[in-house]
UniProtKB/TrEMBL annotation:
<dbReference type="InterPro" id="IPR054353">
    <property type="entry name" value="IstA-like_C"/>
</dbReference>
<dbReference type="InterPro" id="IPR017895">
    <property type="entry name" value="HTH_IS408/IS1162_type"/>
</dbReference>
<dbReference type="InterPro" id="IPR012337">
    <property type="entry name" value="RNaseH-like_sf"/>
</dbReference>
<dbReference type="Pfam" id="PF22483">
    <property type="entry name" value="Mu-transpos_C_2"/>
</dbReference>
<protein>
    <submittedName>
        <fullName>Transposase</fullName>
    </submittedName>
</protein>
<comment type="similarity">
    <text>Belongs to the transposase IS21/IS408/IS1162 family.</text>
</comment>
<feature type="domain" description="Integrase catalytic">
    <location>
        <begin position="143"/>
        <end position="333"/>
    </location>
</feature>
<dbReference type="GO" id="GO:0015074">
    <property type="term" value="P:DNA integration"/>
</dbReference>
<dbReference type="InterPro" id="IPR001584">
    <property type="entry name" value="Integrase_cat-core"/>
</dbReference>
<dbReference type="InterPro" id="IPR036397">
    <property type="entry name" value="RNaseH_sf"/>
</dbReference>
<feature type="domain" description="HTH IS408-type">
    <location>
        <begin position="11"/>
        <end position="90"/>
    </location>
</feature>
<dbReference type="GO" id="GO:0003676">
    <property type="term" value="F:nucleic acid binding"/>
</dbReference>
Amino acid sequence: MPAARINMRKLKDALRLKFEGRHSHQYIAAALGISKGVVTKYVGLAVAAGLDWAQLAAMDEATLERRLLPAPRPGDMYAVPDWGRIHQELRRKGMTLSLLWEEYCAEVGERHCAEHPVKPWRYSQFCENYRRFAKSLKRSMRQSHRAGEKLFIDFAGPTVTLTDGGQANIFVAAMGASGYCFALATKGQTAADWLDATAQALSFYGGVPELIVPDNPRALVRQANRYEPQLSESALDFARHYGCSMLPARAYHPQDKAKVEMSVQLVERWILARLRKQRFASVQQVNEAIAPLLTYLNERAFQKLPGCRASAFAQLDAPALKALPAQRWEWAIFKTVRVHVDSHVQFEGHFYSVPNALVGQILELRVTANVLEMLHRGHRVASHARCAHKGGYTTVAEHLPERHRQHAQWSPERLLLWGQRIGQHCAHVVQRMLERQRHPEHAYRACLGLLNLSRRFGEQRLEAACAMACELGTTRFTHIRDILVNRRDLIDARAPSAWSAPLHAHVRGPGYYQ
């Protein structure tokens, strides 16, 4: 390790003690805590430069250093790298200072010639000079962001006043590595506004980062905690849809999202300040005015780094982002329900069917503007289009038990066709059953009872029983069943009876009533 460089103030004291005090080299070294050789070296340099104490006393430290220390030889000239480019390259995934130093050495070696006799710094000096450059960018803690890793989101403090008296809130997003900025006007700062604006930001960037870092808003954070904040179900559903994570910043710690704080400041200066004299009737008009100014902001050149936000995004973040899902996320609400005994759940007065095996189970509803999904332990078990008809039913036949499904498939037309297939008397009985009730569905059980009779006694006997019932002027199920049970349908009604009334004194006969 090289020795520490002597302080010029201490060196000036050594020269004062030698030229003005006339002390020995050993006395000066002991008094100032330096070696005797150092005193000898710098006294000799001052004598060789022809300087006396009066001249030395009038010089400042920088001038004294230039007069005493020799200028570097041409062979000691070091090539200065492009620190701005190196600073941006370090934001790439897997990039290290060691690899950049090797590339720097190779580049300097290619440029080396007699007219350009420079050499590269050693690795330790290369790293030290880069750290000095990084500290000069801003006097605050530097946060290193890998390409495509983080997207910071927040709302700006100022709003845009609309002509109807409302306010347009300004949503701002910024990529961590490049600082590529996105701005959007929203009606409010509700959870739907937060997540919908973030979805539009991801579409603007054309990809999905690994982590989304919002502020600590109540709209997204169900329970704030320094170490384990709990997000709302809608925020978790958003992150699940895009395959990323969402980690809120600590409350009252804006330094956790310094990148978007700076972007908010830039949006206020370069966009909102230019729109201060304009009047807007809607949020859509505000967004139309923001679009060209946002392009201008992202294409403004950096002050100390090469390129601009747009070029940095194209080089760093864009290649590292994950692909967007096929469908854009849609705002959803969640509700816990229990499955009724009829294999349906209720939402806003309408009933939706679920598989009958889940009767009595607790499900989670995910409801969007057009679709209602049923989730059981995180798995989707049913999905329906939303219906606003209160008291109505949306039923999938496969969700019902087998016996319910068969019952649901019956209709007056189908029952009549079934009766006609058996015979005209059976069809007549079915027709009379349906007409006798105020609603045809009330007669379904009686008609299905006839179907069971055909399975038990056969279709021919049922037709004969229906014919007998029609002669008797009845169409009740119980009467037809009794005919079949008592085997009355098997008696041949057309056979002549061999019985005749006997003559008797008490029998007056038909002539008596003439």
